[in-house]
Design goal:
The chain is mainly alpha-helical. The protein folds into 2 domains: about 180 residues, no CATH class; about 90 residues, no CATH class. The protein is about 70% helix and about 0% strand. Helix 1 packs parallel to helix 3 and helix 9 crosses helix 12. About 5% of the residues have low confidence.
Length: about 280
């Protein structure tokens, strides 16, 4: 809780400080400091929190900054402008410039915030060993798409540029997911001997059956999430590859490791799937 809340507040403090102190004199330096801070906080989140929480917290940090920009800068600037007009002039040029600058930033933050808020539906991304890199790709890709939409009225062929930005983001995500071998832990574990279905079922009953059963003991995610149940040996065998992907490769199940599955149990599941006939 301290890491999550502290990271969001740290990002807000860093952003607001560089916008008020550094940006009026050196906007490029302010941008560089903020980008470096964003990258550092994003990587820190992925190292200290699970991947799903890290993605959501970075999105929450950007959303908090957007809200703070409105409350602390944009609205006060508007009020000052109205008061200045009534008094016959004299509004602070620095305040107006900062309001314009953070309004532009809010515009570019919009798509990254949306995609990070939706990222919880894509465990292959947040559960990947390189999730920090994929997180940054999503932020850059979202900002790039926003930029194309901003300049579309003055850009011929903007639709092609938009398609190119989306395609480049998808390719970058694919390459990032290909980096590193997620098969190594499974291959290494496969040398530890055969695993019986009874052993696998024991693990699944303890760690997965609370949700993935017609007789749930935990219905907080709704009835049998995804329609997946593990009540019979046949159901377990039929979903062996899915078990491997979610519990062993991406390690996104159980959600937030709610049932406290151990690394040894994950390795056991991986060995069992590896020994199944192809």
């Amino acid at each position: 809780m301290l890491v999550g809340a502290g990271g969001i507040l740290l990002g807000l403090a860093l952003y607001d400080t560089v916008q008020r102190v550094v940006a009026p004199r050196a906007p490029r330096l302010a941008a560089a400091v903020w980008v470096a801070g964003l990258v550092g906080i994003a990587i820190g989140f992925t190292q200290l929190l699970n991947g799903r929480a890290a993605f959501l917290h970075v999105g929450a940090m950007l959303g908090t900054i957007m809200a703070a920009n409105v409350v602390l800068t944009i609205v006060p600037s508007q009020r000052a402008l109205v008061a200045s007009a009534r008094a016959g002039g004299g509004e602070s040029a620095e305040l107006s410039a900062r309001a314009k600058r953070v309004s532009i930033h809010n515009n570019y933050f919009t798509f990254p915030v949306i995609v990070l808020m939706l990222s919880g539906h894509f465990p292959a991304l947040y559960g990947h060993p390189n999730n920090w890199l994929l997180l940054l790709v999503l932020i850059v890709g979202g900002a790039a798409v926003r930029h194309v939409l901003n300049v579309r009225f003055a850009l011929r062929g903007w639709r092609y540029a938009l398609a190119g930005a989306v395609a480049a983001t998808v390719v970058a995500l694919y390459l990032g997911m290909r980096m590193g071998s997620s098969e190594a832990p499974i291959a290494e574990a496969s040398a530890s001997g055969p695993v019986s279905l009874a052993e696998v079922r024991h693990v699944i009953d303890r760690r997965c059956g609370a949700c993935h059963s017609v007789r749930q003991s935990d219905a907080s995610f709704g009835p049998a999430p995804g329609g997946v149940t593990f009540d019979t040996p046949e159901e377990i065998v039929a979903r062996a590859l899915r078990i491997r992907e979610r519990a062993v490769v991406t390690r996104t199940m159980p959600p937030g490791n709610k049932t406290q599955i151990t690394d040894a149990e994950r390795a056991l599941l991986g060995r069992w799937v590896a020994q199944l006939p192809r």
